[in-house]
Amino acid sequence: MKALTPLRKYRAKVFLAPALKLFECLCELAVPFIVAAIIDEGLTQGGSHYHEAPFVLGLSGLVFAFAVLGFGLTMISQYLSSDTCTRFSLELRQGIYDHIHSLTPIELEEYGKNRALTLMGNDSFSLQNGVQYFMRLLVRAPFIVLGSIVASFVINWVAGLIVVGALGLSALVIFLVIKLTPKQYGKLQRELDVISARGEDAIHGARVIRAFNLEEKQEGEFKQESERYRKVALLLSKINAAINPLTFGLINLAVIVILYFGSYGRSSSGLTTGQIVALLSFLTQSLNALIQFTRLVTSLSKALASKKRIDAFLAIEPSIVDGPLLEEPSIKEGDLYFELRKAGVSFGGQGYGLLDVDMEIHKGEKVGIIGGTGSGKSVLISLLERFRDPSVGSFFYKGHDARESKVSSIRGDIAFVSQKPQLFKGSVADNITLGLPLDKERLDRALDDSLSSEFVSRMSNGVDTLLEERGANLSGGQKQRLMIARALYADRPVLILDDATSALDYKSDSLLRENINKRPGLTLVMVSQRATSIKNCDRIYVLDEGKVVGLGKHEELLSSCPVYKEIYEAQVKRT
Question: Please, what are the domains in the chain?
Fold first, then answer.
């Protein structure tokens, strides 16, 4: 997909609207000739139809008919352009949104989340405006200008040269604008990306910034970025602001010259009153068309810069794609669910976050993963969820290479709870069901098992109580329990808890694990820095510096794995 791909299905409308504008232009260019005939032949003494009411009224009726026809064609064209660009913009934003979700979190982080959001907002809007002006003005503006020049030569060749001179100089002004602005619009969008990133960092890190008294530093950096944006925007504004006075001045100069030649003497210029009125009408029409053309140029310059940015984003190929397998094999209790063989993950070829990892997870098994900070636990979980593929080695899902499966099949089996709670503005029930049909009995069980009932029941409206964005009106432990309730409500066969009970006290952590273990057939993967949280697992993997340095049950590891023993004893002594 590219930025203009959604426009293909509307190409008939894209070309129909300018065609209708063409007929509207013909109506508009015909009117000055009719008005000239009325003045010279019907209202001027000596005219061939002087004071003939039927002649004057008939041509006046023709002017009115052309006006009504032109208005009707304009309305149809405007409707087509508005409808098309709105639908196009909707589908473009949807395409960008879908592409965001097709990328892995790693790829999205590398590109920049703020840049991606700017594409959905500012850049999509610029492209929408570009399509709209393209449909409305691409034919009309140049045709009116060229038509006015031809009509001027038809009336008088001297007047035609005056019109050509004025419009030629105006075109030169516009050409300079076209030459100067596109790169600046691209720079303007990049500066907007930086401002968005600065603003988001300041909002998310507000507590840290205040704690370290860095408000002035953050404000200063934001002002610097804003000032750079202002300078680029001001430069573009100055360039665009010069267009109108220059073009108006040139056209009005042409009007003065035409009036001078028209009044200098009929014998030398050959201009009648009606012809002068017609020439002034053509100049006015062409001036308006030139102004519209500058809007078209400005809009298309912005749209072109935005198109390049959107195309560059859509050109990013997702590294994780669906495999050819149409149907997943069924597995029973005890069968191999996930398997890693000599798996390793390299970060840009600059060393390995994981190396030579062998892991087996069987259906219905309780598996624990423990290790210090930077040991590779999160990278390992990203492999199991297939948010990344191993750089070396293999990952098997239900007995076959995971690359052969559909991504939705693997992730559809997993309910994941991150160490960073992600809650949305809405009711408690909406945050737990997350789009799934509401089942009251299932919801109550999820709340009970996650120990969330005790605080949700005290809320003013129970599960209908509204949560603030990111769960701002909840404590850290409450957020984690609601996240676990969401995972339990999803009722997936595999539950991965990535240090998801770190904010709970030891008693609540123990009760929560007991409730989860009572769920029949559940495959549980617990990632934790607490040895006490995983000591009852069927199998425990100990990670250190990206390698598995210990494997077994709790008692086995205490005697065979120094790293595990050190973690456990340090935590037991501390408590």
Answer: 5-314 (1.20.1560.10), 336-574 (3.40.50.300)
